[in-house]
Amino acid sequence: MRFTTFIIMFISTWLIISPAITSAAENFPFFPSLVNSDTGEQVPSSDFYPPKKCAGCHRELYKEWNGSMHSNAIKDPIFNALWKLAADEGGEGTENLCAGCHTAVGTLAGEITRDDEGNFQMSDIAREGVQCHLCHSIVGTSMLETPTNMPQNASIIVRPSKVMRGPFKDAEPMWHKAEYSELHTKAEFCGNCHNVFHPANNFHIENTYNEWKFSIYAQKGIICQDCHMMPIEKAIETAKTLTRPKNPGKATGFSKERENIFTHEFVGANFTVTAMLGADKHAEIAKKRLKSAASIDLTLPAKATDDGITRVKVRVNNIGAGHNLPTSLTEVRQVWLDIKVLDAEGKIIYTRGDLDEKGNIAAGTDLFGVEAVDSEGHHTIKPWEIERFTYNNTIPPKGYADREYSFIVPKGSKGPINFRATLRYRGYPQAVANYLLGDDAPTLPIVDMTAAEGSVPL
Ligand code: HEC
Ligand code: HEC
Ligand code: HEC
Ligand code: HEC
Ligand code: HEC
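That is the input. Now the predicted structure with heme C docked in place:
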């Protein structure tokens, strides 16, 4: 069987044959992805209905999903660039690890190949990424059988059929059948793909589900769906009040009113790629989400003296994210403090967090993220090389991070002194975008998430 050859090749390439990997390879036929079908056999991609089929009745849900990062999980140019690199450098089989989450349909079908230019080829249905029929064919999770006993690396079990699984106990659809699925109403459903672990060393490269799991939100029963499958205003309210939202509506134009309809935009923070691919509505929601995620408190001294040291404390609060800020690709996402101190004449006395002409953030800037390193301790952003993080400066849910700034007000300055702190977000370092996209790389946009200012008399 081709899987066996593939697994042996995979293991020999990564050169680490630990008992955990051997057993994962035996139990998961699509290893290094943990995605599986209920029979353990391949599933032809033609067994999945295209999303357009669902659009016939679920028009609104389709419009919401179309343009989401789920619908773009394969079209995403940043993903594609790193995926190619993973296939070239990560060793045999690495590309299937990625595909297991970005296109489970293509992986389950075993149909992903590369052309002469190294571009990935697959059926049109596999290109639809994380799509309707895939999610509504998830019949279970193998999260307790994974090497870490946690949801990770697409630990889903899929059985495509005409039975759509979802949150209703009494749905009577036409054309297809329906079955209640408790899993769809739980964060674990999402966690199966939103925990990305290194398949050989099991390091948690993307840890969104785990961050949520041990948060106040999990304690209050507030799940991913309550923030990412709800209109943005309700999601913001949910984070504020720590109570689950309600969103009455209908699943199709002609079905009965339901107590709760979960919207399907699946917006996180990605306003860069959504805008690149023309999903402007999704990009706008992402900006709103980012602007609702954090707040800043300043502790300013009562008075500053020129020629003496002035100290200002800046507290950054994660008020809106149900996981760390930032989350997921914390080794590339950039959240940082831009600090400006001006005298009364507008002259800059002190600055941090500036960009140079190439778009790089100045040394000495306070960034909230992680540094990922390989087995030799060298900095890397290639997931297949990551062995550990040297530090983790992300801000936990409803937690905060304190930073202090000390500066000398030059003699003869005019008071009062104005202190301004802005929290900024960028999807990737400009250098990473240039590296991945080459000449096509745009100048990456930045969102100002929140800001605070205050003045200190001299
Ligand atoms: C990432 C997985 C995922 C994708 C992709 C997805 N859904 Fe859903 N869908 C869910 C989950 C999870 C729920 C239930 C949420 C809950 O109850 O907590 C749901 C709920 C539903 C419901 C019940 C009504 C509602 O909105 O609450 C319908 C109908 C539905 N989805 C249809 C679709 C269609 C049509 C598409 C494609 C256009 C789609 N889904 C894409 C995960 C997905
Ligand atoms: C366990 C599921 C899973 C696996 C395995 C996985 N990814 Fe992802 N990937 C995700 C999720 C979920 C996101 C979205 C996180 C976010 O945007 O915050 C993502 C986002 C990305 C992004 C960011 C895209 C953007 O537009 O910012 C890149 C690049 C990426 N993945 C590359 C890869 C590569 C390369 C591999 C294989 C080495 C891989 N992924 C394996 C789930 C997975
Ligand atoms: C011919 C119209 C029609 C088409 C096409 C259609 N659906 Fe439905 N679907 C319905 C109706 C009607 C309901 C019931 C809504 C209710 O009871 O509130 C429903 C319910 C659902 C539910 C909820 C099931 C539950 O028990 O919670 C899901 C999930 C779903 N559809 C997914 C899909 C997906 C995925 C597709 C495309 C592969 C699709 N539907 C295509 C009409 C349709
Ligand atoms: C089959 C795997 C899979 C499942 C299940 C899944 N996701 Fe995703 N999700 C992905 C991948 C892959 C991406 C990233 C695509 C990219 O960036 O290229 C993603 C992206 C996202 C994003 C966009 C992130 C951003 O940066 O804007 C959000 C939000 C999201 N998912 C939420 C959810 C929620 C909520 C659920 C559960 C209801 C869920 N996902 C279930 C695979 C999955
Ligand atoms: C209380 C609301 C809330 C809950 C609960 C929540 N999120 Fe988020 N999520 C946010 C906000 C706000 C952002 C934007 C700020 C950020 O990036 O952290 C976000 C961002 C994201 C991103 C994009 C991060 C990036 O920079 O690309 C992903 C992916 C994501 N969430 C997935 C999830 C998953 C999966 C769960 C459940 C395990 C979840 N979220 C639970 C509010 C929430």
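The radius of gyration is 24 Å.
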